Amino acid sequence: MEILIDNKSGAPIYDQIYSQIKNQIISGSLKENEPLPSIRGLAKDLRISFITTKRAYDELEKEGFIYTIQAKGCYVAPKNVELIREENLKKIEEHIEQIVQLAASCNLNGEEIISMVKFSLEEWK
Questions:
Q1: What b/e string do you get for 92-107 counting C-beta neighbours within 10 Å, with b at 16 or more?
Q2: Cβ within 8 Å of residue 55, ≥6 positions away
Q3: How far is Cα 1 from Cα 22, in angstroms, rounded to an integer?
Q4: What's the confidence (pLDDT) of residue 95?
Q5: pTM of the full predicted structure?
């Protein structure tokens, strides 16, 4: 598992860890029941406070991406297809919002946007 901390990013460090692990789980880079580095071990590797790493792991566990076995560690939770679908739907909605804003700045109407999407879908097939 690879985590990169960007100190120039405006995102909090715990959120960077959370997002990168979550994306690796969703993409399949991290497999179901795969052990994650210990909280203290990851904190040491990243040279950050273990409290920061713990917060990221707590968020991942709260959202169902990982689970903890007492005295054994944290593991990737079995994929919840609905959870992953919801995450991807949120991403699509964010991209659509960006498309609408950009289209408005170019004076495109809804039909033109839909035409562009249909064209992209035909190319994708």
A1: eeeeeeeeeeeeeeee
A2: 14
A3: 11
A4: 93
A5: 0.71
Q: Specify the pLDDT at position 39.
A: 95
Q: Look up tokens 């985590």; give the residue.
A: 3
The helix/strand/coil state of 69 is strand
Three-state DSSP state, 8: coil
Helical spans, DSSP H, in the chain: 13-27, 39-46, 50-62, 81-105, 110-124
Which amino acid is it at 58? D
Angle between helices 50-62 and 13-27 (to 10 degrees): 40
Are 53 and 14 spatial neighbours (Cβ–Cβ below 8 Å)? yes
Tell me the C-alpha distance between 26 and 10, whole Å. Answer: 23
List the chain residues with pLDDT less than 70.
Answer: 81, 125
